[in-house]
Amino acid sequence: MSAEPFTIEQFYKFMQQNKLMAGKCRKCGKTHLPPRPLCDNCFSQDFEWVEVSGKGKLLTYTVIHIAPAQFQALAPYAVGIVQLENGLRLPGMINGVEKNELAIGMSLTIDFGTCATSQTWPQWSRYCFKPS
Amino acid sequence: MKGRPLVSIVSAGLSKFGKHEGLYAREIFAIAVKEAFDRCPKLDPKKDIGAMFIGHMGESYEHQGHMGAAAADWAGLLNIPATRTEAACASSGAALRSGIYAVLSGLADVVLVGGAEKMTHRTTAEVTEYLGMASDYPFEQWHGITFPGLFALMATAHMHEYGTTERQMAVVAVKNHFHGSLNPKAHMQKEITLENVLTSRMVASPFKIFDCSLITDGGSCVILAKPELARKLTDMPVHVVGSGQASDTIGLYERKTLTSLSSAKLAAKTAYGMAGIGPEDIQFAEVHDCFTFAELMAYEDLGFCKPGDGGRLAESNETRLGGRLPINTSGGLKAKGHPVGATGTAQAYEMYLQLTGQAERRQVEEAQIGLTHNIGGSGATAAVHIYRSD
Fold first, then answer.
1. pTM of the model
2. Is the pLDDT at A20 greater than 60, yes or no?
């Protein structure tokens, strides 16, 4: 598996396989989410892939009412930062929760979504978070 | 007097902030430059100015890159080394810092630093998208997280941790609009009420439209000189005695804390250390109130109060003109306006006016030591500078 480059592009490719993957530095042990090709802790380029649980707790949130054109049809929509079970964090949209029921600490789990873009670049999926 | 000068400000200029219908950013910048030249008749711009740095955030607004050369040309300074500095909303804070590097390196004795942005010809959706470009693309922009959204994420966390309220944020808007009403160059010169703020249209909860800074056109500049030269160029120099700049993760989600900006704390620590000055010595400041909440967080990051006490400090009225520590006497980004590239040196312009006793109706009495705090993006860049009168 380690043949795949430790890049954001590859992170999103794994998402299409319903996998949340992080890069773990083989030298210092730091786990990077998203993966990066150079360890910011020890400057090593030697990594291995580790699968990360998509479950976590909501650290903070906001409901966005004014959005760029491409998201305006979805507004108002909730976004937040989720702290995953391994302590790493990911931001994303939160679906399936009433706006007035959003609460710091609530349990959420990742929904990998689909690659719903007609753009040539980037071909990334739009994952989101849903109640566990 | 505390603080050995790193460089001296010998002049400063600022365009009116607001809508400049039909003007291009470099043309607005030229208005600011003209004021700075007029204020400093002993300066021979073509002969004396050895370099220029201009803060400019984006090509998207006007389809124009390469702003260093373009702005130097329109300022009548063709042929000097001219470079655009880009650090999102801290672009001209970074220009100021770069100018200090240039003077202290000895490569230039006099340097013009400034910034300009033209924004009002674009729709709110377009500006929201362009400003968003200063955040992480693959994990923030891609998932619909806007700029107000990023600061709102911090505000929600701060409210949860410290009990900060929407009313405390609204107090900042009311104060800064009052200050703006005293500044003839402010975009908004009308006072507003707490109710106006609290009942205005939602942008990104908890921020309403009156919690947000303005989409504005404007240009600003200050002229820096080697301290030994300052007195030859002006009778009223202002000295920069501390300079700090720091970076942090581009993605907000990667930060250890969501209730303060490490970059701002680091930049402040550096600047205070350099100046031999502490937060208790600061008499007034211009802080980066891109959102009302950001001003509360700035109070804490700069050491004006304890972490979590920003809201209470705002409510105390001590940061209002006439109070113990007036903040954003210019009106701040909130009322003076926020033409992103111009903001950092517009803050320095306010320092220049206040420390030379030229701030008229909003003059801080016996102003001798001030501070500017300029934030780029959601805090991936911070520039803090400390100034004193001659």
1. 0.97
2. yes
Contact criterion met (CB below 8 Å) for B57 and B91: yes
A87 near B CB under 8 A: no
Residue A94 lies in a domain: yes
How deeply is B22 buried, as exposed, middle or buried, from its count of CB atoms within 10 A (0-12, 13-18, 19+)?
exposed
- Reported as a single tens digit per residue, the pLDDT across B219-253 is 999 999 999 999 999 999 999 999 999 999 999 99
CB spacing of A68 vs B146 below 8 angstroms:
yes
If one counts the domains in chain A, the total is 2
The tokens for A127 are: 């994952």
| Amino acid (1-letter code) at residue B333 | L
Domain count, chain B: 1
- How near does any CA of chain B get to the CA of A3, in Å? 22
Lowest mean pLDDT among A121-125, B106-110, B286-290, B298-302: A121-125
Inter-chain CB pairs, A–B, below 8 Å: 101
Its domain, for residue B297, covers 7-123+213-389
Query: Is residue B140 domain-resident?
Result: no
Radius of gyration for the alpha carbons in chain B, expressed in angstroms and rounded: 19
Q: ipTM of this complex > 0.85?
A: yes
In the block, residue with structure tokens 């002006």: B234
| Claim to verify: residue A66 and residue A122 sit in the same structural domain | yes
Max CA pair span of chain B: 56
A103 touching chain B per CB within 8 A: no
C-alpha to C-alpha distances, A26 to A1, A21, A33, B378, nearest whole angstrom: 14, 15, 15, 31
Residues A59 and A12 in one domain: no
Q: What is the mean pLDDT of residues A70-87?
A: 95
Nearest by CB to residue B142, choosing from A59, A69, A124, is: A124
Within 8 A by CB and 6+ apart from B180, the residues are B186, B187, B188, B189, B190, B330, B331, B332, B334, B335, B336
Helix (H, G, I), strand (E, B) or coil at A61: strand
B345's CB contacts (< 8 A; 6+ apart) are B12, B55, B92, B93, B95, B96, B113, B114, B115, B220, B221, B222
A13 & A31 share domain:
yes
Say how far apart CA A6 and CA A2 lie, in whole Å: 9
- Interchain CB distance below 8 Å, B153 and A80: yes
Q: What is the pLDDT of residue A113?
A: 82
CB of B63 less than 8 A from some CB of A = no
